[in-house]
């Protein structure tokens, strides 16, 4: 993060570099035009002195006159007739160069053989070298003024320089005195504002920072007014006016201090509480001091020193000083970029590792490794424009730089907002989260992904805008073309279709959640929950299919074959997967008839258990052992549901044959009364239904009773009732019989000792098999 703060300071310095020299062009455009006229005159003199160049000029003039005469005779101008100025311009550019006619011949030959790839490459490289030589020549040319001054060819009016310096020094001292007094008065409010900003949020801190910057700007305006007042009072008469030199000095003061106000707004070195950007105190002081130095160098050099040199000496000296000011300022910024190159790269790499998006992390890491190359290229481009096109460099640099700043700032602002939403999610009101708890989860599951795509689109749009601003690509022309318009409109419509489909799906899901929400006075049944879940799944499939087809149609894909193919595939599936179709149809009717719901205990296809889930083609049941059974609806011919309306526990109690039936019934009724005294009373409807004796078994008399319970509670109520029956029967000594078997020993063999004893044993044991209840056929009576 520390290194990232250094990169921000470097970028701010680059912005000041590109704006200040360009703004200074308006102050001395007329002076530069006079210098260019002098240079053009020198070039024309060189052409006339050179025999070859003079002959070429005469030939061009004759050719132009002949073409003009022919055009007058025919009554129409040639389609590609050139003006004399256009023909003379290449000669003037080649003045003083012995090979100028040869260059003209080379250009003609290249135009004649433009189809040859090698010649075209050679022509391109030659033009590139010529342009580089032209830049170098125009860069060295201003320095000739210093050589001529050193030789004494251009005199300097030192008396006038001293007079101007005295006037400038007086007004600047007055302006800075007014500025310091105004700032001292206004700084009394800053501690209190800083304390308020420390206790408040970012919005209040931004407001206070803007307010303090406005106060600083007012202080600058007051200093500028004091300087003008001193300049007027210096003549003794207010009507005398301010001299040009004093006006230049005060304008330089005003621009430099406003630039410093902007730097203080960004770095805020003296008040940490007001600082918006993540600069440390050390970093803010570092960049603030160095960029203040750069501002003073550029502003006072271009707005004061250069005009004074033009007045005191000549325009040649002014051009030389202007070149030196911009050149040294460029070197200063290049040195700052080079010094902080590794630090910024490491800081950006560390920051990229904290990002959640892999793509954004990689892009930012690559940008950190190549940022200094972009800075070098930007500085070089601004310097070349300023050198080669001094007259329109102002509009070019200010226009391109201003639009670049707006594009980058807008892209960063939108990306920061999107990143904040992606990271923190979309907040919903508390009442909406209570009524629709799933809406917040769905929004934060899908919206961040959509916002990541939008953030990538913002990055691409910013890059394309920068290319359009600097003339690398003609993005606007491509968008205005038929292909670009069709492509953008198609993909934009597809995106809108997807967005509208998502909103419709979100609305449907929210409506289903609202219907399934249990509120006071309304309980959601298992049938409603099952039907709405099926509706949710079906609507999701329909919306996805429709949105996909419409989006493909908007981007130019012919969906007719897709629809036809889907119909053929559906027909083939309907023939080849009849069981699947039967599953779906049977499942739909089962749900319409409300035969099965989630949570019911049912018997389906011979399996008894609890329903855990229902889909459009199958039911999932978990039995008493915990085994899960998935049963397709096509195999269901009957559904037995134990959870409809109410249930019964049927108690079949057996007593011995010697038991009084009335006493047994009274004992069963007493057991029911004890059951009602427990918590099970809320699950019981009505009284005990006594049916009486229903069967005479082999060893017992069966007495049946029935208890009406809430659905699903018949088993728990029955188990509790059986416990109370056993308890009451034990208290009243009522026997609950159980099957018994008696075994007898066989007779001894014939002829045994008469006195032999006849052994007989009797064994009583409980039988585990109910089939043993019946007496054996060979059992003696």
TrEMBL record:
InterPro entries assigned to the protein according to its UniProt record, in alphabetical order: LSM_dom_sf, MS_channel_1st, MS_channel_C, MscS_beta-dom_sf, MscS_channel_2nd, MscS_channel_C_sf, MscS_channel_TM-2, YbiO-like_TM1
Residues annotated as domain Moderate conductance mechanosensitive channel YbiO-like transmembrane helix: 400-478
Membrane topology: Multi-pass membrane protein
Leader peptide range in chain numbering: 1-24
Residue ranges of domain Mechanosensitive ion channel MscS in the record: 579-642
Domain of life (superkingdom): Bacteria
Keywords: Cell membrane, Membrane, Signal, Transmembrane, Transmembrane helix
GO molecular function, one term: mechanosensitive monoatomic ion channel activity
Residues of the Mechanosensitive ion channel transmembrane helices 2/3 domain: 539-578
CC per GO annotation: plasma membrane
Region called Disordered, residue ranges: 67-111, 750-781
Transmembrane segments: 164-186, 207-236, 248-270, 291-313, 319-337, 370-388, 400-422, 453-473, 493-514, 534-553, 559-581
Sequence ranges of Acidic residues compositional bias: 770-781
Protein name stated in the entry: Small conductance mechanosensitive channel
Organism this protein belongs to: Roseibium marinum
């Amino acid at each position: 993060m520390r290194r990232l703060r250094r990169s921000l300071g470097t970028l701010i310095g680059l912005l000041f570099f590109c704006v200040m020299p360009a703004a200074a062009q308006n102050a001395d455009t007329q002076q530069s035009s006079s210098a260019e006229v002098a240079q053009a005159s020198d070039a024309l003199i060189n052409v006339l002195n050179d025999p070859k160049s003079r002959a070429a000029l005469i030939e061009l003039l004759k050719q132009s006159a002949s073409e003009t005469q022919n055009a007058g005779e025919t009554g129409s101008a040639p389609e590609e007739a050139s003006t004399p100025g256009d023909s003379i311009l290449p000669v003037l550019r080649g003045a003083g160069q012995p090979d100028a006619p040869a260059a003209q011949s080379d250009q003609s030959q290249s135009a004649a053989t433009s189809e040859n790839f090698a010649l075209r490459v050679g022509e391109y490289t030659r033009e590139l070298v010529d342009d580089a030589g032209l830049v170098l020549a125009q860069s060295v040319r201003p320095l000739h003024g210093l050589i001529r001054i050193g030789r004494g060819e251009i005199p300097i009016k030192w008396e006038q320089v001293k007079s101007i310096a005295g006037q400038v020094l007086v007004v600047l001292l007055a302006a800075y005195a007014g500025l310091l007094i105004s700032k001292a008065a206004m700084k009394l409010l800053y501690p209190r504002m800083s304390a308020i900003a420390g206790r408040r949020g970012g919005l209040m801190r931004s407001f206070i920072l803007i307010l303090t910057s406005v106060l600083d700007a007012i202080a600058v305006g007051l200093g500028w007014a004091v300087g003008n007042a001193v300049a007027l009072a210096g003549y003794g008469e207010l009507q005398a006016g301010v001299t040009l030199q004093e006006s230049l000095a005060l304008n330089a003061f005003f621009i430099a201090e406003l630039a410093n106000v902007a730097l203080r707004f960004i770095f805020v070195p003296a008040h940490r509480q007001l600082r918006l950007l993540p600069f440390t105190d050390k970093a803010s002081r570092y960049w603030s001091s160095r960029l203040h130095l750069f501002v003073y160098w550029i502003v006072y050099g271009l707005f004061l020193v250069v005009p004074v040199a033009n007045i005191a000496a000549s325009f040649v000296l002014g051009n030389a000083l202007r070149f030196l000011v911009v050149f040294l300022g460029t070197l200063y910024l290049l040195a700052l970029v080079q010094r902080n190159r590794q630090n910024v790269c490491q800081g950006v790499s560390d920051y990229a590792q904290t990002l959640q998006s892999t793509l954004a992390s990689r892009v930012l890491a690559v940008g950190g490794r190549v940022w200094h190359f972009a800075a070098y290229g930007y500085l070089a481009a601004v310097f070349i424009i300023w050198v080669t096109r001094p007259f329109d460099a102002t509009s070019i640099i200010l226009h391109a730089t201003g639009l670049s700043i707006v594009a980058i700032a807008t892209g960063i602002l939108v990306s920061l907002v999107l990143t904040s939403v992606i990271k923190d999610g979309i907040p919903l009101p508390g009442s909406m989260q209570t009524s629709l708890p799933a809406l917040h989860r769905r929004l934060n599951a899908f919206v961040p992904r959509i916002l990541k795509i939008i953030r990538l689109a913002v990055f691409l749009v910013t890059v394309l805008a920068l290319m359009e601003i600097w003339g690398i690509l003609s993005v606007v022309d491509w968008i205005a073309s038929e292909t670009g318009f069709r492509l953008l409109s198609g993909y934009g419509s597809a995106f809108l279709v997807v967005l509208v489909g998502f909103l419709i799906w979100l609305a449907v899901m929210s409506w289903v959640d609202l219907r399934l929400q249990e509120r006071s006075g309304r309980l959601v049944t298992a049938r409603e929950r099952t039907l709405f879940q099926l509706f949710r799944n079906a609507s999701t499939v329909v919306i996805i299919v429709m949105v996909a087809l419409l989006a493909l149609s908007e981007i130019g894909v012919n969906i007719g074959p897709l629809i036809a193919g889907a119909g053929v595939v559906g027909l083939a599936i309907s023939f080849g997967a009849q069981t699947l179709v039967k599953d779906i149809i049977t499942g739909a009717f089962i749900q319409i008839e409300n035969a099965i719901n989630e949570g019911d205990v049912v018997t389906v296809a011979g399996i008894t258990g609890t329903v855990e889930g229902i889909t459009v083609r199958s039911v999932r049941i978990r039995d008493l052992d915990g085994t899960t059974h998935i049963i397709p609806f096509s195999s269901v011919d009957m559904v037995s549901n134990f959870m409809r309306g109410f249930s019964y526990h049927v108690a079949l109690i057996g007593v011995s044959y010697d038991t009084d039936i009335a006493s047994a019934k009274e004992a069963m009724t007493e057991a029911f009364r004890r059951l009602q005294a427990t918590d099970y009373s809320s699950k019981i409807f009505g009284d005990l239904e006594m049916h009486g004796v229903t069967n005479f078994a082999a060893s017992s008399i069966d007495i049946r009773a029935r208890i009406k319970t809430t659905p699903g509670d018949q088993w728990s109520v029955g188990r509790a009732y059986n416990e109370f029956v056993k308890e009451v029967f034990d208290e009243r000594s009522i026997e609950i019989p159980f099957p018994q078997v008696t075994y007898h020993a066989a007779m001894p063999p014939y002829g045994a000792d008469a006195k032999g004893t006849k052994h007989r044993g009797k064994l009583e044991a409980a039988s585990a098999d109910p089939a043993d209840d019946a007496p054996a056929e060979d059992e003696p009576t």
